[in-house]
Amino acid sequence: MPLVSMRQLLDEAAKGGYGVGAFNVNDMEQIQAIMGAATETKSPVIIQASRGARQFAQDRYLFHLILAASELHPEIPIAMHQDHGNSFETCKSAIALGYTSVMMDGSLKEDGKTPSTFEENVEVTRRVVEYAHPLGVTVEGEIGVLGGVEDGHGAGGSGLDHITDPDQAVEFAERTGVDALAIAIGTSHGAYKFNKKPDGSVLKMDVLIEIHKRLPHTHLVMHGSSSVPKDLQDIVNEYGGKLKETWGVPVEEIQLGIRNGVRKINVDTDNRLAITGAIRKVLWTQPEKFDPRDYMKPAREAMQKVVSQRMTQFGQAGHSADYAPLPITEIAKGYASGALDTRPSLAAK
Ligand SMILES: [Zn+2]
Hints:
- The chain has 349 residues and is of the alpha/beta class.
- Helices cover 47% and strands 12% of the residues.
- The protein is built from 14 helices and eight strands.
- The chain has helices at 6-16, 28-41, 51-57, 59-72, 88-97, 118-132, 166-176, 205-214, 230-238, 251-258, 269-285, 292-314, 328-337, 344-347, and strands at 20-24, 45-49, 78-85, 101-104, 138-143, 180-183, 219-222, 262-267.
- An eight-stranded parallel barrel has the order 1-2-3-4-5-6-7-8, surrounded by ten helices.
- Helix 2 runs parallel beside helix 4, helix 6 (118-132) runs parallel beside helix 7 and helix 7 (166-176) crosses helix 8 (205-214).
- The longest helix has 23 residues, at 292-314.
- The radius of gyration is 19 Å and the shape is globular.
- The two termini are 34 Å apart.
- The model has no long low-confidence stretch (mean pLDDT 94).
């Protein structure tokens, strides 16, 4: 089947009360791992590529690999999403390629590092929405700033530096009309999120709950939401790795988020750890091996295992055949008629 609108995937997730993992990809094996997990668990999926991934793999390679996934798995709804677009032009180029969803991260300036002003964020995000919606393409915005850095993107620092203000979130949703909104509640990108098991003092679930109450029609997105499980860290370190002890976002906290309007959960670090651990194990225990398939196959299997687990934990498992994906042109009509408008003043009707 053709690639599906992320908006439709998230609307269906809201109806079913579950979340959908958005997994980052850079190469063929990662895409195969996700599709293996989606087939195994019968899950709809969001595959996403950062700017770094688009550069690493080159746009057309990456896009055609994902098209191959949709040809091979017509029974699985797949949305293709640009993760952390830094400018109108980045989002436009993703849409030109055929991505069905884009994130305009206007919380940072175009350099992907410096926090922008609220007005700058509203301006660039609204511009992307005005361009994307007539084409049926979904838009995710971000308000507040996440901590950490990943793929060269991020403000750095702790996740507590710029927690989303619920009043601003409501104003932002009203003025931009975004479909989905990433909020900052204390999470960070990368492996080093927390230096102890996170509790209410570092992970502001109350802010998330408040935002959902006030924006019930805007799908919330949790970034930096790898759980960084100890067993995956241990495998890396057991075979020569040097990871410092660290904690991610506990799955129970994500599940609490899902009960309170979180529909998209970004996961990257856990998959990176699974892949690296599997490769290290082969190279460390069987140093005579030199065929890349000898370590890429276990790496792909290790990632598939993590993705399957998350799909089950997020509740998307079993939902791949719940609905008929609409052509993106139909989604465009929904935006034109106002039927898909999520702005609080209109959606309250
Ligand atoms: Zn992110």
